[in-house]
Amino acid sequence: MTEPISPKEARGSLSAAPGLRPADDRTNNHFPMPSEASGEDDVLVGCICTDIGDPSVRTLAIFVAGDQLRKGAALNAVQIAMRLPDDVGRKP
Questions:
Q1: What is the rounded CA–CA span in Å between residue 71 and residue 75?
Q2: Is the pTM of this model over 0.90?
Q3: Residue 31's domain spans which residues?
Q4: What is the pLDDT of residues 36-89, one digit of tens each?
Q5: Are 37 and 65 in contact (CB under 8 A)?
Q6: CA 17 from chain center: how many Å?
Q7: Which pLDDT does position 92 carry in this prediction?
Q8: How many distinct structural domains can be found in the chain?
Q9: Would you state the pLDDT for residue 70?
Q10: What is the CATH number of the domain that holds 27?
Q11: Strand 20-22 relative to strand 60-65: parallel, antiparallel, unpaired?
């Protein structure tokens, strides 16, 4: 990022993005887990915090969990196909 972003701002942007879902409860020390993402179309995000390894404060650390068969392969193929115009691939 060229400008610093707060974890709160990032969470708001990520929460509004299609296919992403906040899935953490820092008060109870709960973060996105692969077992929770299994069978889900959405990618789970959480534990959004400033990366303490970057003194410029321009990077964030984020926990991400997703079902690799659904989002990693099959679902993406379906979503891409659905966005293609109706005439793509048809012979004239």
A1: 5
A2: no
A3: 7-83
A4: 999 998 989 999 998 888 888 788 899 999 888 777 677 767 777 777 666 555
A5: yes
A6: 8
A7: 54
A8: 1
A9: 78
A10: 3.30.360.10
A11: unpaired
Q: Quick check: is 46 in a domain?
A: yes
Residue 82 phi, psi dihedral angles, 5° rounding: -70, -25
Cβ contact 45:32 at 8 Å = yes
Long-range contacts at 20-25 (CB < 8 A, ≥ 24 apart): 20/44, 20/45, 21/45, 22/46, 23/65, 24/63
5-33 pLDDT, tens digit per residue, is 888 998 898 888 888 899 988 889 999 99
The Cα-based distances of 10 to 18, 22, 34, 58, 81 in angstroms read 14, 11, 22, 11, 29
Q: Which two tokens stand for residue 1?
A: 């990022």
Residue 92 lies in a domain: no
